[in-house]
UniProtKB/TrEMBL annotation:
<feature type="binding site">
    <location>
        <position position="154"/>
    </location>
    <ligand>
        <name>FMN</name>
    </ligand>
</feature>
<feature type="binding site">
    <location>
        <position position="229"/>
    </location>
    <ligand>
        <name>FMN</name>
    </ligand>
</feature>
<feature type="binding site">
    <location>
        <position position="230"/>
    </location>
    <ligand>
        <name>FMN</name>
    </ligand>
</feature>
<feature type="binding site">
    <location>
        <position position="58"/>
    </location>
    <ligand>
        <name>FMN</name>
    </ligand>
</feature>
<feature type="binding site">
    <location>
        <position position="158"/>
    </location>
    <ligand>
        <name>FMN</name>
    </ligand>
</feature>
<feature type="binding site">
    <location>
        <position position="104"/>
    </location>
    <ligand>
        <name>FMN</name>
    </ligand>
</feature>
<dbReference type="InterPro" id="IPR051260">
    <property type="entry name" value="Diverse_substr_monoxygenases"/>
</dbReference>
<keyword id="KW-0285">Flavoprotein</keyword>
<dbReference type="GO" id="GO:0016705">
    <property type="term" value="F:oxidoreductase activity, acting on paired donors, with incorporation or reduction of molecular oxygen"/>
</dbReference>
<keyword id="KW-0560">Oxidoreductase</keyword>
<keyword id="KW-0288">FMN</keyword>
<protein>
    <submittedName>
        <fullName>LLM class flavin-dependent oxidoreductase</fullName>
    </submittedName>
</protein>
<feature type="domain" description="Luciferase-like">
    <location>
        <begin position="24"/>
        <end position="383"/>
    </location>
</feature>
<dbReference type="InterPro" id="IPR016215">
    <property type="entry name" value="NTA_MOA"/>
</dbReference>
<comment type="similarity">
    <text>Belongs to the NtaA/SnaA/DszA monooxygenase family.</text>
</comment>
<dbReference type="InterPro" id="IPR036661">
    <property type="entry name" value="Luciferase-like_sf"/>
</dbReference>
<dbReference type="Pfam" id="PF00296">
    <property type="entry name" value="Bac_luciferase"/>
</dbReference>
């Protein structure tokens, strides 16, 4: 395959993730999220279907914008309650051999020194199959939970993120030389002290002495995902990300987003193919068109309007209960997710978008139909939209993924669009089909912190 489509299962360690209200159905295991068994079964299923990764979203605050409180989010289980996704990684790594294991952690959430050790530990336990989705948070409640006394300004969060990444690059890439670990049992010397280094970072937000407490893991730096599509978010992606998650409203919007990211990558001194772009999509499929439409009606019957308004209010940082749905979105200024509004303009530059359009486009970004129809549409997103992969959102779990794997994956495999077998190596090597080694590509800025071997 010259350019294949990659598949991630988009999920969250919660009752209800993206499509609100479906947790009430008898044919889903969303209410079992506090047990390990459903997650283990899902990971095995995804590896059987040759998915590239399971991708865990996360938040560290409650959705309390709608109606000015968190009641709707609590009542409808809107990403609340929520458990730590990284705690699932060792268990899922133990029952799979190839599946990538990507989890979200905010740069506001944990000090970079302790996070660097957590990520290295997980990369060791999974034999190099960990990915990190870098987020800067968008919920005011999240910042208040962490002692920030209010959410830092949007661009300031990214400034902090840039320094956060510099710190972890220094720890992962530069603190230990490649040959520092000796494991010499005869001399009783495990590591050479001269080849383990402090990083002595002094910055605006962090002071970190080092050295890194973990020895180098298979990837050193985990595969770096990112999900911001604002102007500042795309700048951040062009500098740091190896894969980015977009939520384009249509194929035209996806192409505009991809082209913009490629332009920014070149300006940052990287190659366009250094960054894989994943589009978020929901697929509802069945053997016949009529059965697929029946499944879609069932989703609509269980859809929670209140839950949908609560989650979108949180994303926008705007209380939709106090907004006329037919009012134009315009150039909405928000300290939450700015990329949502930008994606509207890219989808239809000449259209006057209303809040009703916005909510409808989020709730209905679906592909519905037979496996052949779904495969046709995914190829259009892939070829015409320029995306490299899909973050597949579920309506029921594991049912949505089972339907996709049993129906759509074989069609895509027969067309040579998705992989039949995994590439050997780490998550990074698998994701880039061996074009990149286990560590960061040479064009990535994190490589600047690697220590050059000293020749006697």
């Amino acid at each position: 395959m010259s350019r294949r489509l990659r598949l991630n299962a988009f999920t969250m360690n919660v009752v209800s993730h993206i499509v609100q209200g479906q947790w009430t159905r008898p044919d889903t295991r969303q209410r079992d999220y506090t047990s390990l068994e459903p997650w283990v079964e899902l990971a095995k299923l995804l590896e059987k279907g040759r998915f590239d990764a399971i991708f865990f979203a996360d938040v560290i605050g409650a959705y309390d914008v709608y109606n000015g409180n968190r009641d709707a989010a609590v009542r409808r289980a809107v990403q609340f309650p929520v458990n730590d996704p990284s705690a699932l990684i060792p268990a899922l790594g133990l029952v799979t051999e190839h599946l990538g294991l990507a989890f979200t952690l905010s740069i506001l959430q944990e000090h970079p020194f302790s996070f660097a050790r957590r990520a290295s530990t997980l990369d060791h336990y999974t034999r190099g199959r960990v990915g990190w989705n870098i987020v800067t948070s968008y919920l005011e409640n999240a910042a208040n939970n962490l002692g920030y006394r209010g959410l830092p300004l949007h661009d300031t969060r990214y400034d902090r993120g840039d320094e956060y990444l510099d710190v972890v690059y220094k720890l992962w890439e530069g603190s230990w030389e490649d040959d520092a670990v000796l494991a010499d049992t005869e001399r009783g010397v495990y590591a050479d002290p001269a080849k383990v280094h402090e990083i002595d970072h002094r910055g605006e937000y962090y002071d970190v002495a080092g050295p890194h407490l973990s020895e180098p893991s298979p990837q050193r730096t985990p595969v770096l995902f990112q999900a911001g599509s604002s102007e500042r978010g795309r700048e951040f992606a062009a500098r740091h990300a190896e894969a980015t998650f977009i939520s384009a409203r249509n194929i035209r919007g996806a192409r505009a987003n991809v082209d913009d990211l490629h332009r920014r990558l070149v300006l940052a001194g990287r190659r366009p193919d250094d960054l894989l772009v994943f589009q978020g999509l929901t697929v509802i499929t069945a053997a016949t068109e009529g059965e697929a439409r029946r499944k879609e009606r069932e989703v609509q019957e269980h859809l929670s309007d209140e839950g949908t308004f609560a989650v979108v209010s949180g994303w926008l940082g705007t209380d939709l209960s106090a907004v006329d749905p037919d009012a134009p979105v315009g150039d909405l200024r928000t300290n939450a997710q700015q990329g949502i509004v930008k994606s509207l303009a890219e989808a239809a530059p000449d259209k006057t978008w209303t809040f009703r359009d916005l909510i409808f486009s989020i709730a209905n970004r679906r592909i519905v139909g037979t496996p052949e129809h779904v495969a046709d549409e995914l190829e259009r997103w892939h070829v015409d939209g320029g995306i490299d992969g899909v973050n597949l959102t579920y309506t029921t779990t594991p049912g949505s993924f089972e339907d996709f794997i049993d129906g759509v994956v074989p069609v895509l495999q027969d067309r040579g669009v998705v992989q039949r077998e995994y590439h050997e190596g780490t998550f990074r090597e698998k994701l880039f089909d061996g074009r990149v080694g286990p560590r960061l590509a040479d064009t990535h800025p994190g490589t600047a912190y690697r220590r050059k071997a000293v020749v006697a």
